[in-house]
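Lab meeting, action items carried over

1. Structure of the two-component assembly. Owner: GW. Status: complete.
Input record:
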Amino acid sequence: MHDDPTVAMLVRRARDGDKQAWDAIVVRYAPLIWAICRRYRLDRPDADDVGQSVWLRLVDQLDVIRDPAALPGWIATTTRRECGRVVGVARKREVLGYTQDVAEIPDSDPAAAEAEVLLAERNAALREAFRELPPRCQELISLLLADPPVPYAEISGKLGIKIGSIGPTRARCLQRLREFPSVAALIGADSIPARR
Amino acid sequence: MARQWADDDDDLMAALQEAFRAERDVPREFIEAGQAAYTWRNIDAELATLTSDSATGLATAAAAPVRSAEASPRFLTFSSADLTIELEIGPDGIIGQVVPPQPGRAEARPASGPVLDTEIDDIGCFVVRPLPGSPFRLHVASSGISALTTWITL
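Predicted assembly:
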């Protein structure tokens, strides 16, 4: 796994009692937990139960996490295990005495599991990098991503830039985004061969 | 396959869209509950998770005696590595037992409001009265063992 300076710093600060750092960790990885719960088709109360268990365990584990870069993998693994527990309990609900075989849990593929973690990491890094961009870059990118699409003429009017400048401005903004440390770390990790 | 976002602007825009969509999917309260978990950092206890709940029919055969639907209490079982906590939730309080039996103290800790503290007797039984504010967690401490349940919603 690559080295994300943001995560290491957040873990260190949360360990030292910084509640804001903890909040940031939760914001960063709640989507990963949520996505896994969705994949397991958990209903809302079960997903809440899983989320709670994962965060409580992490609170307990903060002091013993030696390698913060392993955190997303730990969160994903813990979430899958908790989802398996909840699904197993739900099965018992349906058929008394029937316990779900671990092999049935839709997770046995390690490559897919790693891809899920990498995607969550990429998403988190991109969101954080985006929020560090200058406001005009954020506005432009938001307008370009809007659904339904906003016509270029309207974007031009809203931001007071020429239609012809939208493309080049976007390119500059995206370049800044790539230079953000955690995004740059991901790009660097991707360029290392033999990890596919 | 999806490495191009590092070089290609259109792919990077698509990746951003995906990142925001993943975040939008997550309910606000799901995040807030996670953030609130930090307040438990100072409690040194192992986690006891819910293994049986008569209210959801999530019951082992032993835990749910048949009673009339209206007045029946709710039975919950929580388990940690070392301890099982059985709860019977009635209209005006909670009767609990820890297994294996041992004396100590039990605390019901609501998300907000006062902590209800009670004694666990020699055979592991305790009573919490009145009902704590919901949701709450139960913290059980005896010599050498400290366990904390996940949130209980009444």
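2. GW to write a short summary for the group page. Key points so far: Chain A touches chain B through 54 residues (CB under 8 Å). Residues 97-103, 192-196 of chain A have pLDDT under 50 and may be disordered.
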